[in-house]
Sequence to fold (299 residues):
Amino acid sequence: MIRSKRDLAIGILLILPGFLLMGVFVYGFIAWTIRVSISQWDSIVPDYSYVGLQNYHELLNNERFQIDILNTIFFTIFFLSFCIILGFILAILLERINRKAEHFFRNLFLLPMAISFVVTGVAWRWIFNPTVGLNSFLKALGVKNLWGWATDPTSILGFHLALIPVIIAAGWQLTGYTMAMLIAGLRGIPEDIFEASRIDGASELQIIWHITIPLLKSVFLAAIILLGHISLKIFDLVYTMTGRGPAFATDFPGIFMWDTTFKGNRYAEGAAISVFMLFLVAGVIIPYLVNILRKEKNT
Fold:
């Protein structure tokens, strides 16, 4: 009994510093940001005068913020579709080749994960530069009507075409990660199920649609949650690659927050944007965590 109490005390002492640091630098700063967001701090000099939800009301009526939310929605939809669909195709293909080739291509597709979003943004900014990069290659092939890529202000039903290079760059970096998750899920499916389906006369497409995809439902959900929270708080890739873009075509809440807080010194409004982004991410993560905990409790 004495030894178990001593072990418990040692365990508490070991994890206590981590809890204290997390309490101060995570939850403490979140609370402070919420406090600033309901204040009148709009200059270098702090002003904690209480204004209620005024900053949030002004934010929701801000045209730039409305464009940012629309950009986030479109980016999230196409970014997730890009990563999930291409990642699934790559996972299926790699499962059907020999092990040596699979190891090589798996590492090749995972390589972008080792690169930071900043480096990715700089590299793809050059590739989609209107005068060099991809356009130079197209010009050499004789293409005359070259596209301005991220500098194109064209919008179709609210979707800015300048977002396409950003979606491609983000998808390039995280498709390999999605592929790895799906390969792990495929390895967990018993081979007997596929063999029995083939014996019953099912085609490969029928096996994929009716067996593989339903059995990978939990993996797809986990990938959507992880990629979704990345897309909702995207900043460094877009900031280094395109910035706000023409007419805020590639603007996102993270960039708006940076400009508002650190360039405009409107700290209360910047804090309101940060809190709004926090709620967006929490709205994606918390239901998923609750669902996981509920399943573990039932099992």
In short: The domain at 63-298 is CATH 1.10.3720.10 (MetI-like fold). The mean pLDDT is 89.
